[in-house]
Amino acid sequence: MKLLICLMLVLTCSAWAQNKVVRDRNGTLVETWSQQGGLTDVRDRGGVLKEIRTQRGDTIEVRDRHGVLLRTERVGK
């Protein structure tokens, strides 16, 4: 669980995310990230949408699959 949290922190620190695949230390698929413009979809290993991340400037809004705001992240350089 700590490894997954560390992976998530590393990925959320990237202001300009690209398409990514997150795997655990055994190589098992954990989630996929796909970016289209300022929107990034985060999907679980089964392809089910988990989060939608919208970046505007140095602020990222993270919403669940139903559109409810989960948190706001700030990206600094």
Explain how this protein is built:
The chain is mainly β and about 80 residues long. It has one domain (about 1-75). It is built from 1 helix and 6 strands. It has one helix at about 1-10; strands spanning about 20-25, 30-35, 40-45, 50-55, 60-65, 70-75. A 6-stranded antiparallel β-sheet has the order 1-2-3-4-5-6, with helices on one face. Strand 4 and strand 5 (about 60-65) form a beta hairpin. The longest helix is centred in the N-terminal third of the chain and has 11 residues, at about 1-10. The chain starts with a helix and ends with a strand. The mean pLDDT is about 85.
What is the domain tally?
1
What structural class should be given to the helix and strand makeup? mainly beta
Termini gap = 28 Å
Principal-axis shape: globular
Mean pLDDT: 84
Biggest pleated sheet: 6 strands, antiparallel
- Low-confidence segments, ≥5 residues, pLDDT <50? none
Strand order of the largest sheet: 1-2-3-4-5-6
**Number of separate helices:** 1
- What string, H for helix and E for strand, traces the elements in order? HEEEEEE
Rounded to the nearest angstrom, the radius of gyration is 12 Å
Count of distinct strands: 6
Strand content: over 45%
Proportion of helical residues: 10-25%
